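Now for a concrete sample entry.
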Amino acid sequence: MPRTPEMLRALRHRNYRLWAGADFLSVAGTWMQVLGVNWLLLSITGSATSLGFGLFLQSLPTVLLAFAGGSLADRLPARPLLLTTQALHGLLAAVLTGIALGGADGVWPVYAVALLGGVVSALDGPALGRFGAEVVGPDDLPNALALGSVISSGGRILGMGAAGVLIPVVGTGALFALNALSFAVVMAAIAAMRRGELHPLPRAEAQEAGIAAGLRYIGGTRWLLVLLGMAFVLGALGRNYQVTMAAMSNGPLGAGAAGYGVLSVVFAVGAVVGGLYAASRPRLTFPILFAAAGLTSVGQAFSGVMPGLLSFAVVLLPIAAGAVVLDTTVSTRAQLGTAAQMRGRVLAAQSMVGAASGAVGGPLLGMLSDTAGPRAALVLAGVVTSAVTVLAAVALARTLGHRGIPAAARAFGHRGIPAAPARVLGRRGAAEAPAPGRRGAPRSPQDLQGGSPEGRTTVKHAPSPVSV
């Protein structure tokens, strides 16, 4: 049997092949439903404001309930929990099918489904990420996360393209029905996995479980706070390209809707390139993290002064690639460097940061584009994110007691995996973690999706009611 290329090494695991295949179809189904809901709401109201309110309803539970979901993920067996939540997602998609086929004449039933879907996503998101780590184990988790971003980008392209073809032919109800079936595919993949080939993570015991214990752990893990802080700022000002691409297309570039479509395709291609690069790396280290952060930040500043559509697209491609490398590396470092029994709550913190950065950054960039112009908004955001990247690099080095990022990276072990904080997590079954740089530093693994598609080995969420 031919040897699997190193870039695809996670696919050596049968369980991951099931996971990846189901994920691709699942993401495609999710994006079909996203566009279907967009069209349904617009056909009912004729207002883009209705789409924004739907997004708010779907995102709010993540901010409020993600830590509760993380606590559940750290205490309960992953497979039964995920089978239950995926069934609930499928049921909600089926309800949307009935609403669409029944001739919806009001938005509130759609909003109710969006809110309930957000609640289920908030509760099952950390469990998805935790179970994704059990599918491949710690050594292949970085590769699985990178391949997951490629799969998500491919599924998004397929789903959006299929929706564009199917909506005029069969209507939105068929899209929702197909998405409901995609949840069934995920459930079948989970049920078909071989238990003996999983890499179980230890579950939290009573004294180290709960939201308060998770907050204490994250609050005491300073290097993780640095990463989350940088991820928030860069996510708010550097990830909301749906806003700035639209503003540039309709404004300074004069490219209109067609230009916006071209830029969206370029961004998706860049995301695939970034995912393939991350997958090709044997390990994703802090130098790679800050190089990607610098590339996206400086590139964003330069994109604001590009004179035409072609030059803007040329700069956008590496920005998209760098963003995927950055997000994948942040997720990898956060998952591999934290205690396994805290993994669900760490993932919940990442989800909350992602949701909050989108909620803050989208309106902020939109307001900047309206008041100062899209070019000024991009330049200003790029300068701010560049400064934050430098400050985060310095803060990380100081947190680790080193003067430079290469030295700081060495403190995270020969595999680039940070040691957990040197503290006792609980009185039973928890040992004191070794200090950074010592042999025997923990190497346990974590999907974040979000996506947003970002940060998880799979990203089957409840679909957002609007495109982001």
Notes: The mean pLDDT is 78. The chain has two domains: 1-201+456-468, 211-422+434-444. The two ends are 42 Å apart (CA to CA). Residues 1-201+456-468 form a domain with the Growth Hormone; Chain: A; fold (CATH 1.20.1250.20).
